[in-house]
Specification:
- It contains 6 helices and 5 strands.
- With 143 residues, it is mainly alpha-helical.
- The chain folds into 2 domains: 82 residues, no CATH class; 38 residues, no CATH class.
- It is elongated, with a radius of gyration of 17 Å.
- The termini are far apart.
């Protein structure tokens, strides 16, 4: 399916937070049109990441609420999100491992999905995930 337009973070944030009477109403109405199939939107991973970060940091929304509300949108028939089927797994890790960022959870899901099961990182927290081997590049010799 092709999309009619690309969806930006601010539409999602206004809808999910209802923090601006005028813009939130417009964002919600737009997403209702998407839900009805009147319009289709392309939702890229970067927008999902930015939305999670925005809801988590400045708005202090709980991880469970972020996951629930974003998955509702991601799973709409007229939301085109290439690779979006893996976000359910990403959100499961995100909720189960509060010490990990959303991006860390995404990397872990990608590593498992691609049958790589290894993440090159200096982040020690990633080593505690089942099915993930953490690889820390060694120090250069002579330093």
């Amino acid at each position: 399916m092709t999309a009619d337009c690309v969806l930006d973070t601010n539409i999602l944030v206004r809808h999910l937070t209802q923090d601006d009477a005028a813009l939130s109403t417009r964002a919600t109405a737009f997403l209702l049109e998407v839900a009805k199939g009147s319009i289709s939107v392309l939702l890229r991973d970067a927008i999902v990441f930015e939305t999670v970060f925005t809801l988590e940091r400045p708005y202090k929304v709980a991880r469970e609420a972020i996951a629930e509300r974003l998955l509702e949108i991601l799973e709409l028939q007229h939301v085109v999100c290439p690779g979006g089927d893996m976000f359910r797994d990403v959100f499961e890790l995100y909720i189960a491992h509060p010490g990990l960022s959303f991006v860390d959870c995404y990397l872990a899901v990608i590593a498992i999905a691609e049958d790589i099961n290894c993440v090159a990182t200096f982040d020690k927290k990633l080593g505690g995930l089942p099915g993930i081997r953490r690889f820390e590049p060694p120090a250069a010799t002579g330093q």
